[in-house]
Write a structure and sequence with these properties.
Blueprint lengths: L4 H11 L3 H6 L7 E5 L6 H7 L5 E2 L6 E4 L10 H4 L3 E3 L6 H5 L7 E4 L8 H8 L4 E5 L3 H13 L5 E4 L14 E7 L13 H8 L2 H17 L1 E11 L8 H10 L3 E4 L8 E2 L4 H5 L7 E3 L9 E8 L21 H9 L9 E4 L2 E4 L12 E4 L1 E7 L2 E4 L1 H6 L8 E4 L5 H6 L4 E2 L10 E7 L2 E9 L2 E4 L12
Parallel strand pairs: 5-6, 5-8, 6-7, 8-9, 19-21
Antiparallel strand pairs: 1-3, 1-4, 2-3, 7-16, 9-13, 10-13, 11-12, 12-13, 14-15, 15-17, 17-18, 20-23, 21-22, 22-23
Helix pairs in contact: 9-10
Bound molecules: S-adenosylmethionine.
Length: 463
Amino acid sequence: MNLPKLFEEKMQTLLGADYEKYIQCFEEERHYGLRVNTNKISVEDFLKIAPWHLEPIPWIHNGFYYDGEVVQPAKHPYYFAGLYYLQEPSAMTPADRLPICPGDKVLDVCAAPGGKATELGARLKGEGLLAANDISSSRAKGLLKNLELFGIGNLLILNEEPGNLTKIFAEYFDKILIDAPCSGEGMFRKDKKMIKAWEEHGPSYFSKIQKNIIMQAASMLRPGGMMLYSTCTFDRSENEQVIACLLEQCPEFELCEIDGYDGFSPGIPKGAEEENLNLNKTVRIFPHRMKGEGHFLALLKKKERGFEDDKSQKGHALSGKLPEELEEFLQLVKRSFDRSRFEINNGKVYYMPTGLPKMQKLRFLRTGLFLGEVKKKRFEPSQAFAMNLKKEEYPFVLNFPCTDERVIKYLKGETLDVSDLVQENDKGWYLVCVDGYSLGFGKLLSGMLKNKYLPGWRWQSSR
Ligand SMILES: C[S@@+](CC[C@H](N)C(=O)[O-])C[C@H]1O[C@@H](n2cnc3c(N)ncnc32)[C@H](O)[C@@H]1O
């Protein structure tokens, strides 16, 4: 492996006697990880149906290693059912160590493509709010897809420079994740292109951006709230020094212990000032100490300010009657909907999270769960709604075993002959499932299922 000279010298200083072990890692295979979506399936149940050999990732309760040289979990119907996310093992750590409770208002500031946001959303269990932001509009589209695939409905997907969020969301969130853009030194083994990118934009370029983002995020955290900062790089200027900068400018923040694991290394403070900031509570993941590529994590708490009024603006109640065709569909669904949370724009129906402030002038891709569209006297349920529904919540289900060839045909967008599974006169919207987990909708007539799987999500033969 040809590493930049400057990088090698820096790592020698940082790691001292461990440097040789670190360099040897480049001769070893990378590690592939899969994280179970516990919002859809328990780890125990997933292990009963998983068709590949999986090894537990010891510090992540729902994370597993798989042999990426032999199997392709992205090419399996369970992937399309949103049962898991494929993620480098050390990258699973930040969302895992930010303590999320159902009902929290959570912000992921740099969220695309959603590796961490999908876990944060799963932990909310459908309660509270996940606001997932990314500055890049193309990457934010991928983020939307991944969150909808995971079945997460209590959503706000933003595409903003974080500075534009600070006024609207001042001290609004209970938990914030900043998985900052960085020079990516921890990705060199996994992706050689990162070395070239590092030569163009190195640590000093990113350090300024990171200091800005962390200060902006800090202002959106409520007193008593918690914030986790992470990068996938090793340079101190993007890690400990960013945290030192926050602690110096915002004394209301303090570092917290992160749930430990043998392979974790403590942060690396330099000099008396940094020593005094408890930076050894931050965590470093090095590839020569555990089976993960490399990360930095700092968990922070904003101190309480004593008694506080709840300043979050309550959402404005959206009253009024719902269109009949929507009402008819919702009556089939075994779930209690809060009438005040529906919003309809140009026929598109959304089920909104509660307690959102007014968000004029912000660029966003999605607020709430997109339920579907009211079109000329009919309601068409959406792909996102299908992914959010559990099989037990809808009465008309076509549940195929994974081995039925119609599963792949459905994912490819083909019409299905299901006359063996239904009565001749059965008709209407059916939820298509694989082994009990929803994939999408189809419309039944005379034993044939018209395919309503979202065209942009279809199974590509070349995948
Ligand atoms: C490390 S990646 C995030 C990965 C993501 N958290 C995940 O787990 O899938 C950093 C992201 O920050 C975004 N970004 C870059 N500059 C930004 C900024 N100033 N504000 C917000 N996001 C930014 C990039 O578009 C990129 O998607």
